[in-house]
Design a protein that fits this description.
single chain; 418 residues; alpha+beta; Outer membrane efflux proteins (OEP); four-stranded antiparallel β-sheet
């Protein structure tokens, strides 16, 4: 029995719609966005390579330099009957040997300490960049999330505005109502459309910025708001600051500067080298062995090594001062963010528990008065506009609280929420 045309059409539409629904990208959560961003970050990869390179360099930083091979000819005649001969003259030798430079053990230990400090600094920079990346991605993700919520809120109110346009037009056509009412209703709808365009602009800009870190995944709809009451280990945010990624690099930086200063201070202690060589002469002469020692002579330390040592010591003090200033600035920023979060949460509670419910009650009352013939449309539209502003303001406060939360939640990578 042939199927009715509407039934066959419905099956055809479903056949094309089902694959699209099956393959539709799932919503994008904040945690997933952060994982994708870390896996795709070229800057983070580059810093990891730098940290690995520094760690490898630190393995050999305290070693003496490689020995040197010596090969050559000594005392070859350039005049007379034996000119250019390497065997006829008794003083001519074909020489081969090795030379080794030896640094003082104290210097090698300081060089190793400097290299290890630089490796720790590079490793700390990995954590710092990872923390900054997570925070930046979270901020843009939340910006888009709340822009999308604004769009949905405006769309919800726009449906009511469209009904108002249709209702006032019908009332006017039936000989009831004021001719200005449809105009006011359309103006209200146009205002909502303009607000939607602004929210859409913010959402699309945030999506474009997310594409830097997420690629095609930036097109997925963001989902899931952060729990503002679940800030990880809030007490640790203002304690043990030296282990925070934003400050952890300063300790090895200072250690490297101290090692540099100590190296400059011991520069007046000479290094030495030894050279052992074998000289082969002509068959008529005996061969020779030479053993030579060399030592640095820092006889002008007052004008060479000592000024350099003073400069390095000042640079070490500069490093400590910069570290202290960074710690104070960072602690101030953390405490400010805690204040921002606390105030934003209080404002959010007031908006959701008082301001929005009161605006909604006013809008309902004005609509009931209008429908009962005791009010005018202007009052209804104004109350609806105020309700929109109140709900958008509450959404803005929620976004502000979420940004303050993100400023704190991703300061310490290993303590980030999972």
């Amino acid at each position: 029995m042939p199927q009715p045309v509407p039934f066959r059409l419905a099956r055809l539409i479903a056949a094309f719609a089902l694959p699209a629904a099956v393959h539709a990208a799932p919503p994008l959560s904040l945690d997933e966005a952060l994982r994708i961003a870390e896996s795709r970050s070229a800057q983070l990869s580059a810093q990891r390579f730098s940290a690995e390179a520094s760690a490898s360099m630190a393995l050999t930083a305290g070693e003496n330099p490689d020995p040197k091979l010596i090969v050559g000819i000594e005392n070859a005649p350039v005049e007379g009957p034996d000119k250019w001969s390497v065997t006829a003259d008794g003083m001519t030798m074909r020489r081969i040997g090795v030379m080794q430079d030896f640094m003082r053990g104290e210097k090698r230990e300081l060089m190793a300490a400097r290299a290890q400090a630089e490796a720790r600094r590079e490793s700390a920079l990995v954590d710092m960049q990872a923390s900054d990346l997570r925070k930046e991605v979270a901020m843009v993700f939340l910006e888009r999330l709340y822009a999308e919520q604004s769009i949905r809120l405006i769309d919800e109110l726009s449906k009511e505005a469209e009904l108002q346009v249709a209702g006032t037009t019908a009332r006017l056509a039936a000989g009831r109502g004021d001719s200005a009412e449809p105009v006011m209703a359309r103006a209200n709808l146009a205002m909502l459309s303009d607000r939607r365009l602004e929210a859409e602009r913010m959402a699309r800009r945030a999506e474009a910025r997310l594409s830097r870190w997420l690629g095609e995944d930036a097109k997925r709809i963001p989902a899931g708001e952060p729990d503002l009451d679940k800030l990880p280990r809030i007490a640790a945010l203002t304690t043990d600051l030296e282990n925070h990624p934003q400050l952890a690099m300063f300790a090895p930086m200072t250690a490297a500067a101290d090692a540099e200063a100590k190296l400059a201070a011991v520069a007046t202690k000479p290094d030495w080298s030894v050279e052992l060589s074998y000289g082969a002469r002509g068959s008529a002469y005996t061969n020779m062995v030479s053993l030579m020692f060399r030592m640095d002579l820092p006889v002008f330390a007052g004008s060479r090594q000592e000024p350099a040592a003073i400069a390095k010591a000042k640079q070490a003090e500069q490093s400590r001062a910069l570290a202290e200033e960074a710690r104070r600035r960072y602690e101030s920023e953390v405490r400010s963010a805690l204040v921002d979060l606390d105030i934003a949460k209080s404002r959010l509670a007031r908006n959701e528990q008082e301001i929005v419910p009161l605006a909604d009650a006013r809008a309902r009352a004005s609509l009931a008065a209008y429908e009962g013939g005791r009010g005018d449309l202007a009052m209804v539209l104004e109350s609806r506009r105020l309700l929109l502003e109140a709900r958008l303001a509450a959404l803005g406060v929620r976004a502000e609280a979420a940004r303050a939360w993100a400023q704190l939640a991703y300061l310490i990578p290993e303590r980030s929420p999972k």
